[in-house]
Amino acid sequence: MLSQDKRHLIAKRVAEELEEGQIVNLGIGIPTLVPQYLGEKEVYLQSENGLLGIGPAPTEEELDIDLMNAGKEPVTAIKGSSFFSSADSFALIRGGHIDVAILGTLQVDVKGEIANWAVPNQPILGVGGAMDLVAGAKKVIIAATLFNNKGESKLVSNLTYKTSGIRRVELFVSDYAVFKFTDDGVRVVEIIEDITIEELSEKVGISLEYAEEKILN
Amino acid sequence: MLSQDKRHLIAKRVAEELEEGQIVNLGIGIPTLVPQYLGEKEVYLQSENGLLGIGPAPTEEELDIDLMNAGKEPVTAIKGSSFFSSADSFALIRGGHIDVAILGTLQVDVKGEIANWAVPNQPILGVGGAMDLVAGAKKVIIAATLFNNKGESKLVSNLTYKTSGIRRVELFVSDYAVFKFTDDGVRVVEIIEDITIEELSEKVGISLEYAEEKILN
Amino acid sequence: MRKVIQANEVSNLVKSGDTLLVGGFGLSGSPLTLIYELLHSDVSELTVVSNNLGEDGLGLHKLFEAGKIKKMVGSFFSTNKPAVTAWQKGELEIDLIPQGTLAEAIRAGGAGIGGFYTKTAVGTELAEGKEERVINGERYIFEKAIKGDVSFVKAAKADKLGNLIYHTTARNFNPLVATAGKIVIAEVDEIVEVGQLDPEQIITPHAYVDYVIQSKFVKQGVNYVESR
Amino acid sequence: MRKVIQANEVSNLVKSGDTLLVGGFGLSGSPLTLIYELLHSDVSELTVVSNNLGEDGLGLHKLFEAGKIKKMVGSFFSTNKPAVTAWQKGELEIDLIPQGTLAEAIRAGGAGIGGFYTKTAVGTELAEGKEERVINGERYIFEKAIKGDVSFVKAAKADKLGNLIYHTTARNFNPLVATAGKIVIAEVDEIVEVGQLDPEQIITPHAYVDYVIQSKFVKQGVNYVESR
Predict the structure, then answer these.
(1) Rounded distance, CA D207 to CA B48, Å?
(2) What is the C-alpha to C-alpha distance for residues C159 and D177, in angstroms, rounded to an integer?
(3) Does the interface ipTM go beyond 0.85?
(4) Per-residue pLDDT tens for A95-132?
(5) Cβ–Cβ of A91/C112 closer than 8 Å?
(6) N or C terminus: fewer CB in 10 A for chain D?
(7) Chains D and A touch each other (3 or more Cβ pairs < 8 A)
């Protein structure tokens, strides 16, 4: 599969997890592809810099440096949107009022703790709102390819990169499988790629099991 | 002097202390009489329940239960006024953005610490914004008669009523004299009533001295 | 996603023993319809966080008279004689907090802040038993955030998504309690279509609001009266 | 009480070694006129608190290039290569704080709150050396409030009293820094008469604002360009 196809495959699968009316924050990268797969389902996109209700990309005429998303890309605002300060925006995030944060990551450990802010071997000079979203969102879904560009699994037994916080994410939607994290550890909810769970386990280097969804939910 | 005259005398003297453009919070009682003595001097009155820019008392037609001051009396709002939440209002107060708070009191000690919230021998079930104003305003002026209705001096060596906080007020404008509080203690800035400083000292029960204004300022 | 509900659905959302956060300053900006709905319900043992206990015979005071309030958390109850008497008899618990600290604690509860240090009340009786800390040479006391099970909010207008705007000083504690309840119910004078509120003027974004009801009260001078 | 001043009066208000609080998110809502006024002044050794260091060659980055910034306090500098290099060489100090913690700390500074406990960053490298406390069973870290000597604010409109309103997401950190500086200067697109701003819509009441200047920049798509 082409890299671009994988990204869309992941975004489409994540879109299925969202529910009508939810307040959603999207990280940069694959998460930004999710809205195009929502169909009729209406969700409300929040941006850290002070907007609830991000609309479609602006036309050339609509471009306005005042109106940006947290990735500093120009956006529009939908009907019913609202603007607020950064303090009020993070009150919304940290206070548990974002239903779902969809984030990229560098690593996820088997308990669901993630490392998504500090790129290894680079000076650590940027965190932005990453840790606030990890700490505050009601549910965190990771949207990322299972392997990084060196072929290393992002699902790991123990984080070797710097943690983004003690909060464990709920779901990791990858191009190979969907992983769910509970108090019992990681379980495979769904296999996307044409691969057995044994083959997946071998590729990842962790012995993986299917979730018994009926029991877990 | 009639009690009502004393109250107006105090209010008029306090008005002289205010400067054009200041942000002022008025406690209940005598402080509410101050605005009528401001003449051309424009100050902006803040109310704890979320208003900067209190206007004159409303006409019968203007009465609106939504628009109240912190004493729960109907008010109006002037041009250039703004409304905000109680959290934002006390951020303004506690954060040091009120230039002058004019408050009543039960007692002031010789260092300027005041007791103005807990009425003695009554259950202590009300504090309102009193302690926030004492802690936060840039300058606190006490506007009160020097003696309570039992004839006891409100200026005391040590508070016997419950303190409103560790912050010392700057000025006490009474019907007998104006007292200033500095690190060196209380000084008489001005005598209002026809009385000598010795007679005043005797009435109050504290040996009082004049301030040397030129040195103090 | 049906946020607009009927007033009689409200009492199902509140349970006995709940902590209820209620906006309003005295009666001004008080969610009277929501409060009075509980009079006909069997909820009791409520802890109510609100600046005042309404006014004698009105607002939250009616809930207290009906024996539904176990504890009040607020800043000013002195002028409410029946509440003072009940407190003296041990029939009502009261937790007295300076008004600014109360507002800040509710905001903190809604904002994911566990607690904070304030200058207000340092050295006073209301600081007794509270941790004190010197920060940059100034004395502060620690206050914990306040959260609730259910919040009652009064706003001027809601759109159908639940975005809220307020009217003058009736705003007061309302936007704060709107952030800090597990279930947030707003009583409004007018419900408008989505898009009719100015995005720059919305004070409470719809993310905070679970339900909206039409107020049964209208303003008449310095009173709110039940509309016919 | 003359609040409206000329841009060239600004540099007299800032001293070397000052802590400067600057609104804006990247360049969006950045007070460019105020920032660029300092380029021609002899102030130096500034500590600047702002989410970013502008963008390469623009905004705060110009102050940095001019050697006027000793230390940055903010949340995201990774994409600013010259800043990263300067930090590696020890020529620029950087204090990295999560974006929400930064916003809350500035708000606290303006609100008379000494410090607060946040859930954000618990257990991470950014919590190292910070006090941790369990409140109601959850882990939090302590953060101190942030205050400044001078605040640079960008708003859409000011009235002549200094009341401010903002435009869309250019609001961001601006209302926060407006509360937390000893001297607060607002750069605005338009100065209007008192009474022309809706009292319900004013975000920064004039009590916070010491001076107002007319911005020299206008929007042109995704840029601010100097007006002629």
Answers:
(1) 14
(2) 31
(3) yes
(4) 999 999 999 999 999 999 999 999 888 888 999 999 99
(5) yes
(6) C
(7) yes
